[in-house]
């Protein structure tokens, strides 16, 4: 060992600096390959993993946002369906409707002489049934008009047609009229899915 040290000490400056430079290069290379490069690879791996996590987070956030929007849309649709079923109920509820018409007529000041519901009818491709109600009332023109106006603003759909006014007579200083008309309400009818097997059996 001492011999090598003596040689290094007695060596020319150029050799000394060349060896020192080689040693520095060797240490730098070793530091790069064994320390810096693994750190860079680890950092790149962590950056890639972070990007993947950010992408997954963005995708999940978008899914969550879309899910919330779909839930809001479903809530709106359910509310609209509930409102539609109020206007076009699934059940007949004729007795309740008759009570409402009778109440509206009395509040308008009419004398209700006849309320006669008829049989419901369903068209071939219709999703609703028609329920006709024949009515005969008496009152002055203003009372009849007010009754018809109130019926038109009911939540449940009620169409009034075939309105007839006759029998004008003076009663208690009012011109009384007899009015007959047809009030038609509707009921939702669930359509049944067509069974393809039934069609094939008919063909046989």
Helix residue percentage: 55-70%
Estimate the mean pLDDT confidence: 76
In this structure, how is the largest beta sheet organized? 5 strands, antiparallel
How many separate helices?
A: 5
**Helix/strand class:** alpha+beta
CA(first)-CA(last) distance: 110 Å
* Low-confidence region ranges: 198-204
Number of strands: 5
Coiled coil: 50-87
InterPro entries: PilO, Transl_elong_EF1B/ribsomal_bS6
Transmembrane segments: 17-36
Keywords: Coiled coil, Membrane, Transmembrane, Transmembrane helix
Q: Secondary structure elements and their pairing?
A:
Elements: H1 2-10, H2 13-87, H3 94-108, E1 111-117, E2 121-122, E3 128-139, H4 141-152, E4 158-171, E5 174-188, H5 196-203
Antiparallel strand pairs: 1-3, 2-3, 3-5, 4-5
Write a structural description.
The structure is a single chain. This protein is 58% helix and 25% strand. The chain has five helices and five strands. Helix 3 (94-108) packs antiparallel against helix 4 (141-152). It starts with a helix and ends with a helix. Mean pLDDT is 76; it is low at 198-204.
Salient structural properties:
5-stranded antiparallel beta sheet, alpha+beta, single chain, 5 helices, transmembrane, membrane, 204 residues
């Amino acid at each position: 060992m001492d011999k090598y040290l003596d040689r290094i000490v007695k060596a020319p400056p150029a050799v000394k600096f060349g060896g020192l430079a080689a040693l520095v290069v060797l240490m730098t290379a070793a530091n790069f390959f064994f320390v810096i490069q693994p750190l860079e690879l680890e950092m790149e791996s962590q950056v890639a993993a972070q990007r993947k996590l950010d992408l997954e987070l963005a995708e999940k956030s978008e899914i969550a946002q879309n899910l919330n929007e779909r839930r809001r849309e479903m809530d709106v649709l359910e509310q609209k369906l509930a409102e539609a079923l109020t206007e076009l109920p699934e059940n007949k509820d004729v007795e309740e409707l008759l009570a409402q018409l009778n109440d509206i007529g009395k509040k308008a000041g009419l004398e209700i002489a006849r309320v006669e519901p008829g049989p419901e009818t369903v068209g071939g491709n219709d999703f609703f049934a028609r329920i006709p109600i024949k009515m005969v009332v008496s009152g002055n023109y203003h009372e009849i008009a007010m009754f018809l106006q109130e019926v038109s603003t009911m939540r449940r759909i009620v169409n009034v047609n075939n309105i007839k006014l006759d029998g004008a007579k003076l009663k208690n200083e009012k011109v009384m009229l007899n009015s007959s008309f047809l009030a038609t309400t509707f009921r939702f009818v669930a359509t049944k899915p067509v069974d393809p097997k039934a069609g094939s059996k008919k063909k046989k």
